[in-house]
Structure formats: C-alpha cells, structure tokens
Specification:
This protein has helices at about 25-30, 65-70, 80-95, 105-115, 125-130, 130-135, 140-160, 170-175, 215-220, 220-230, 235-240, 240-245, 285-295; strands at about 10-15, 30-35, 55, 60-65, 100, 160-165, 185-190, 200, 205, 245-250, 255-260, 265-270, 270-275, 300. With about 300 residues, the protein is α+β, with helices and mostly antiparallel strands. Helix 4 (about 105-115) packs antiparallel against helix 5.
C-alpha cells in the first residue's frame, strides 16, 4: 500500500521473532513471510458460519443491529477512535426497541456520519444497507450464498497474513512470539511503505462476526471499498476482509496490524530502523546479530532485565 492520505497507520511497526533457520534469510533478503490464515494462533480465526437471521428481521422490517455495526466496521480505519465511537452512538440512538434499524433512520443520520468521517463518501455504505431487503429478494441469491460459503472456506487456505505490533516493549509479545525473551524484534519503517499487499489494523471485539451471510452484504459494497482504499483492496478479497482483521478482545494486548496477501508468499519488507535483542538471547545469537547489524549499518539494542 502506498503511503497516502487514506493511510493513517503508525510510522513504525514491530515484528517479534525467535531465532531460527529463517532469521538471517529474512533479514538479508529483505522480505516478510505471509503465513497461511488457518495456521494463526487463535484457532477460531477466519472461521465461518451461516445464519440468515442475523441480517434482516423480515417480520419487523428492520436491518439487524449486528448487520449495521459490522458493515460500518469497514470505515473504522479511515477515522479516529473517538469519531468512530460517535458513529456507533449515532446508530445506537436510532435503534428500535427490538434491536433493528429502519432504513430511513440510517438516511436521517448520514449527514452527521459524513461530518465524523471527512474525506470518505459514506453514501454508498448507507445506500447498500438501505437496499438489503431488495438485494435478498434478487433471483439467484441462494446460489450466491453457496458460492460465498465455498469462497470463505477456501480463503482460509489462500489468504496469507504477516502480523506486526505497534510497540517494541510489549512483554507479552516478547514472551509468546520472541522465544520467551530469547529472540529479537525488528522495527520497520512504514513511513514510505510501497507494496501491493494490504495493511490493516486488527479490530478487537467481544464477539467476532463469522456469519458468512455478512459477506453477501460485503460483496455488494466490494467496488465501493475498492475505491475508498485507493484501489489497494480488490473487490474479490474485500468481501472476506472482515474475517481476517477481527479478533477476540483477549488478544488485544498484541496491538496488531496485518499485511494481507497470498498465503505462503514473501512480500518486500520496509526499511529496518533498528533491531532489538531479547534479554535472554544466547551469546551465539547476539554475536551473529551484532555482526549482521554492523555490516548493514543497522542500530542494535538489547533489552535490559
């Protein structure tokens, strides 16, 4: 993703790793590896289920709250935490007692939503939400559901993920992802990140949405997401994007960002700003890393006990 007005991520992101046979190959050849999604640490990640009832209440003629909030998650990366919380509050204020939202109520609050998300045209999202009932009545929708289910399951094998962290002094990351403090942490410079892959913050939720029916709605707005992201998120990927950038709250300590692309591939790494050694790194590994950093003019630091 080229750094532009739509990217508001950190200038630096950190990769925690243990010393292994890939360590110096990755550093010397300047790449990051995209692990297949189904091998991630959380076994529930990217799993899908099927539940039409979570989308629209036919009896009450209202869009389910869960549906509205999940679709609005697409705009989270494009605004501040505070403004996004205000968007959620606006939606909550127009909820019916049964937990649904009438389409005309969404249209009423669109101007206020636009003010909270400057530079992003939210009209397509609101319009698609309003037109969900009509979309569900379209011929061939059942076949589309089957196609989406198959695609979502296949996506777990085809999507690759490289996980990064927002901070360098995260004791949980050192313990769990850097060989129990015996590994290292690389600080990458993302201020001028040039790669065709997707970089997104992970969204932590009490309940992750894995309902494949939601992907039907996401499919409707695929082209719109493509435009909002400066053509970096392809429509065929965007319909499953939510499955790969949400995790349960219990993982919030990771402060994770993800590069997405094809599974088991290498993507060019950004420039290294520094490397940090864990407090329990072996003498042999310390010497090897010092040698590499000296030869490549990379600052090296050591964590203190």
């Amino acid at each position: 993703m080229n750094r532009d007005a739509s990217y508001k991520g950190p200038a630096s992101l950190f990769k925690y790793r243990p010393f292994d046979e890939h360590t110096f190959d990755m550093l010397e050849n300047k790449y990051l590896f995209l692990c297949v999604a189904e091998k991630l640490d959380d076994p529930t990640e990217c799993m899908t289920s099927l539940n039409m009832q979570n989308l629209y209440d036919l009896e009450k003629d209202g869009i389910k709250r869960q549906c509205v909030f999940q679709i609005m998650e697409f705009i989270r990366p494009y605004t501040s935490k505070e403004n996004f919380a205000q968007v959620q509050l606006l939606i909550s204020q127009v909820l019916n007692r049964n937990g649904t939202v009438r389409p005309n109520h969404l249209l009423d609050i669109q101007p206020e939503i636009d003010e909270l998300i400057p530079g992003v045209n939210t009209a397509p999202i609101i319009n698609y939400l309003v037109n969900i009932p009509e979309k569900l009545d379209e011929p061939g929708m059942n076949e589309q559901i089957k196609t989406l289910i198959l695609g979502a399951y296949e996506a777990r094998q085809k999507m690759g993920i490289c996980s990064l962290c927002e901070d360098a002094d995260n004791k949980y990351m050192w313990e769990n992802y850097a060989g129990k403090n015996s590994g290292y942490c690389v600080e990458y410079d993302f201020s001028d990140f040039k790669t065709p892959n997707i970089l997104f913050p992970v969204i932590y939720q009490d309940e992750r949405e894995t309902n494949i029916v939601m992907s039907i709605v996401a499919n409707f707005i695929g082209q719109m997401i493509f435009g909002m992201s400066s053509h970096q998120i392809k429509p065929d990927i965007s319909q499953y994007l939510r499955l790969f950038i949400t995790k349960y709250k219990q993982w919030e300590y990771q402060n994770e960002w993800r590069i997405l692309g094809d599974a088991n591939t290498r993507t060019p790494a950004p420039k290294i700003k520094r490397i940090i050694l864990g407090v329990d790194a072996s003498v042999e590994n310390k010497e090897a890393m010092r040698k590499y950093c000296n030869e490549n003019n990379i600052p090296l630091e050591e964590m203190k006990k």
